Amino acid sequence: MFVGERYADVVNGLQVAYDAMAPVRDRRPDASWKQHERVRFLERMHAEAHTTLLEIGAGTGVHGRWFADAGIEVVCTDASAAMVELCRDKGLVARQADFLSLEPEWSFAAVFAMNCVLHVPRADLDAVLRAVHEVLVPGGLLFLGQYGGVDRESRFEADDHEPKRFFSYLSDDALLGAISAHFDVVDLHTVDVEPEPGVHFQAVTARRDDR
């Protein structure tokens, strides 16, 4: 699997930035619109009797803890060691792993990825989506939510994290095309939150495609 040189640089930067900001991020409130997206996904999991979930880019563990409290068997992963410790402090099973370090023998009925895949360089997005595909059971569900609506990748110079984080924003069509290469898209909708002008939140639910 070829991975661009930028990928390792991006992941290393994210580890440093999120390690440093972990206590700050742990104090931030849980946005109501993110709660709504979790509820929608959990309802679909319940409807299909899915009971296991891998959260990638789990951050402080707020989403993982919510799913676990709802009766789901959750494993959290994050590239940041400090974020993994916050997840464990919340009673969650958590392991340090970036997008391409997921264990190939893992098998989950669902994957939840909230505002993490947007850090993946466009050149490496296909490899990341293949890795996610491999840890899902046949027919398993993926939630991928991230900011986008425009095609742009760069470091965010106004970022309050150091080093400045890398973001890869995709238009709705570009995101849909990337995910459709590996999954059957069940739903794509947008949420009108604007972290910056012209950008909105994209919420995609997809199913593992075994064609």
Fold and architecture overview:
By secondary structure, this protein is an alpha/beta fold. It has one domain (5-208): Vaccinia Virus protein VP39 (Rossmann fold, 3-Layer(aba) Sandwich). Helices cover 36% and strands 29% of the residues. The chain contains 6 helices and 9 strands; from the N terminus they run H-H-E-H-E-H-E-E-H-E-E-E-H-E-E. The chain has helices at residues 5-26, 32-47, 62-69, 81-89, 125-135, 172-180; strands at 52-56, 73-78, 93-96, 108-114, 136-148, 152-155, 166-169, 183-191, 200-208. Strands 3-2-1-4-5-9-8 form a 7-stranded mixed sheet, sandwiched between helices. A two-stranded antiparallel ribbon has the order 6-7. Helix 1 runs parallel beside helix 4 (81-89). The longest helix has 22 residues, at 5-26. It is globular.
How many discrete structural domains? 1
- H/I helix tally: 6
The CATH architecture name reads 3-Layer(aba) Sandwich
- What percent of residues adopt helix (DSSP H or I)? 25-40%
Distance between the termini: 21 Å
Name the CATH homologous superfamily. Vaccinia Virus protein VP39
**CATH structural class:** Alpha Beta
Q: Tally of extended strands?
A: 9
CATH topology, by name, is Rossmann fold
The percentage of residues in β strands lies in 25-35%
Low-confidence stretches: none
**Helix vs. strand class:** alpha/beta
CA radius of gyration is 16 Å
Q: What kind of sheet is the major sheet?
A: 7 strands, mixed
